[in-house]
Specification:
- The chain is an alpha/beta fold.
- It has ten helices and seven strands.
- Helix 5 packs across helix 6.
Length: 232
């Protein structure tokens, strides 16, 4: 999936007939997150990987991306949205960055983009607790453009994409490049550090325990209740 998306974006970037990309999920969710069993069998490395290919394609893509989010948007389903230019969320959409619950760290540059949009304290609440949040809160945090009724979701995204496609294409790309320019270097550095840290964490003993516990539908050993330290 990562490679297919990267290939599609790279193709669209060089096709003059394509002015806007519309991104939406099939089935009942936008993106349900990574296959945890695959993490155990094929942990991503710090170098070129399917994930890194998609991150690079998103960062380098200078045409507008319009996303329509319905159902669950978990992990990468949330963090990938920070590279989109318009994100419309159905009122029943649910978001989550559960990396900490799996003994992992954020990816897709979200350690940079989420604090930049929501502020450090709000970002810390979401990333360090891994809690879920709804479409209304996502809009308040700046993770999505706005919440729309579920039945109007795809129509709203299509209408926006069509309006963008009618704009002068070279100027549209130039506007996006200029807006992204000031934070591009910081984002690329965040992605590099995330990939290195993620590669180490995904191979750690606590991550393997978290993955196994997730698949076994039990609490990981680190979640066992501990007595609070006595106050002096």
């Amino acid at each position: 999936m990562y490679i297919a998306l990267a290939d599609l974006l790279n193709m669209a970037a060089t096709d003059d007939q394509i002015r806007v990309v519309l991104w939406h999920g099939a089935g009942d969710s936008f993106c349900a997150g990574n296959d945890i069993a695959d993490f155990l069998k094929n942990p991503p490395g710090p170098g070129e990987s399917p994930q890194s290919l998609l991150i690079k394609a998103l960062i380098n893509f200078d045409k507008p991306i319009v996303a329509a989010v319905h159902g669950a948007a978990i992990g990468g389903g949330t963090t990938m949205l920070t590279h989109c230019d318009f994100v419309f969320a159905g009122e029943s959409a649910k978001f989550q960055m559960p990396f900490i619950n799996l003994a992992l760290v954020p990816e897709f540059g979200s350690s940079c983009t989420i604090p930049a949009r929501a502020g450090y304290l709000r970002a810390a609440e979401l990333i360090l607790t891994g809690r879920s949040f709804d479409a209304k809160e996502a809009a308040e945090l700046g993770v999505v453009t706005r919440m729309v009724p579920d039945q109007n979701l795809l129509g709203t995204a299509i209408d926006t994409a069509q309006k963008l496609a009618q704009k002068p294409p070279a100027a549209l790309r130039a506007c996006k490049r200029l807006m992204k320019r000031s934070t591009r270097e910081q984002l690329e550095q965040a992605v590099k550090l995330e990939l290195e840290e993620f590669s180490e964490r995904v191979r750690s003993a606590e991550a393997k325990e978290a993955f196994t516990a997730f698949l076994d539908k039990r609490r990981p050993a680190s979640a066992k209740k501990k007595e609070p330290a006595a106050a002096a």
